[in-house]
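User: For a benchmark we're assembling, each entry needs the component sequences followed by a predicted structure for the full assembly. Here are entry 17's components. Please fill in the structure.
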Amino acid sequence: MNIAIALPTPQDRPGTLPGDLAMWFFIFAELLVFGVLFLAYAFARARNVELFDASQHNLDRLSGAINTALLITSSYFVVRAVDRIRHGASRACAAWLAAAMALGAAFLALKLVEFGGKFAAGITMSTNTFFMFYIGLGFFHFMHVVLGMVILGYVAVKAWQGGYSAADHTGVETGASYWHMVDLVWIVLFPLIYVMH
Amino acid sequence: MKYQSQAVAKPYFIAAIGLFVGQILFGLIMGLQYVVGDFLFPAIPFNVARMVHTNLLIVWLLFGFMGAAYYLIPEESERELYSPKLALAMFWIFLVAGALTIVGYLFVPYAKLAEMTGNDLLATMGREFLEQPLPTKIGIVIVALAMLFNLSMTVLKGRKTAINLVMLLGLWGLAIFFLFSFYNPANLVKDKFYWWWVVHLWVEGVWELIMGAMLAFVLVKVTGVDREVIEKWLYVIIAMALITGLVGMGHHYYWIGTPEYWQWWGSVFSALEPIPFFMMTLFAFNMVNRRRREHPNKAAVLWALGTGVMAFLGAGVWGFLHTLAPVNYYTHGSQITAAHGHMAFYGAYVMVVLTMISYTMPLLRGREANSPKAQVLEMWAFWLMTVSMVFITLFLTAAGILQIWLQRMGETPLGFMATQDQVALFYWMREYTGLVFFTGLMLYIGSFFVKGDKTQAS
Amino acid sequence: MKQATALWLLLLALTALTTQASTLAAGMIVPLALAATFIKGQVVIDHFMALRHVAGILRWLVPAWLMLLLGLIAYAFTLNPN
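Assistant: Structure for entry 17:
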């Protein structure tokens, strides 16, 4: 698979991180936070495999899979938005971002339905260690989707108003980088908590 | 000083430094009472000295923050303060209320004070840091609301920058969390749960916003680095501070009857609380290295860099030492906590207020920087106070480790008081080092009175 | 953009595969899910986050995070409480 030539260079300063360096420091710190949480889950599970496997059985795997597809697709839309602004198409960029946000909103809605079902079944963070992680990590990631949507919304509005151009669109790349991070984290979270046992 | 109304910061800073001296004096008294139990008994019992020591700390830092806000907000908003008169009136109300409260602590038995001040109407007293009588608490709310009104109006009508918005957000958070001091449920677990929201959600949450804004403000001024760069850092730092701090506060919930999951969330998130402090260290050094000018106020630059380092050590490293639930199981409430508390408060909040004072006071007194002679003295004060605080922390850490070992581990653990006798040597060393700190503080005050030739042109 | 679309479809296919992995024999689930996750993560990092054009250490921080994380998770899943 010859990928290297396929995608156009998504930035104008070759060799540097796309978007703002400050955002990347934030992304690195966020990845560290999620990494520590994921490992806490994995090693807590190792001490109580049966409980984790039995509890995981109660999860709605399909809901998790759909949510993964939603985030991946929204990430793809954000890639298209960045591509558009690189060609100076502000409105198209904003439209792709809006579409990405719509998928983000669908993710949040589905997640709320999923959590609602669990709460209705009387499951809380105190039920057991597995559900503590499931709810806690899920909620923490949920808040990141919300933050990501706020960032994308800001960028989309600015793009719509013509605030970016083919020559200067660091803001779009910055927002895109954060959104991809939120996606990346979920790509690990889904198999870890919903699938692997 | 660009705007006349910034001058209201001056009385706030003077009061802050005055109360700082009081705080250290009571610290020295308590430090001695650790080893000479009946020192000043019955005039000033240990619990009263402790109450005065901690309350003065909080109050003088609040004075410092308020002074800083009254200086910073007009300059950032590029307009005069909405109402300088209101700011000055609040200063006197706060000072008199604070002084009366301390006098009450010292001269009236605490139970009597509670009775006199209407604690029967709404019981809020008797909890650490929240010992203030009801009228004082209400006074704090009024002063805070008046200040927020004053500052918010100034920002609303003026230029909005990351620095003044973050500062304002921090101050609003401060006021809102203080309201939980009025909530005192009969259920002890609930009481404790919300008790932590006052001072500890301050220091691990909203105060970090205030600190970040103040540091950023001074760095913009002394380094001449682009505001855009500094503001970006500020956003990243406060985002991390809030994410790690608000949940990380769960490290106070391990053993007070709250659900067990706090041991996980508290451990993981608080273990990451050093990140924003580390970013602040990088931030301060990075900006100073990239400076576009040599500001004549070298002392202020030194304080700013010192804040970066000491906040990371005190709040970050010493916090991390005992934050994980399995470690905290042994260290909880030992001298390790005292060690962390001293260095964190000094390194983060004392130093950032002194940074602000160091930068603004010369301007408030009509010059860009103090004379080199005064600055040298101030830098001596910086090193004496900072190095002695490092040693105070190290001695308390040593005392804490020994205390935990003797009292909580091993086959035949000793009782609390028997253990205290065993660690007395470290308490003595801490007390001597405290005297060095006090000397540094006196030099610091002296530096305000050093005359000398006008500063060199910048 | 064609390549991005192809990668997007690849990610969706791998997601479906991961979801179905849970019906496989016990020993296969974890390796398969981890392998799929590694590929998905790497695609997002290299192409969506566009880190493959970056020079120096910053290019490798996120891939290293993914590798280390998945490696430690794999290790944790081999641990047995008994």
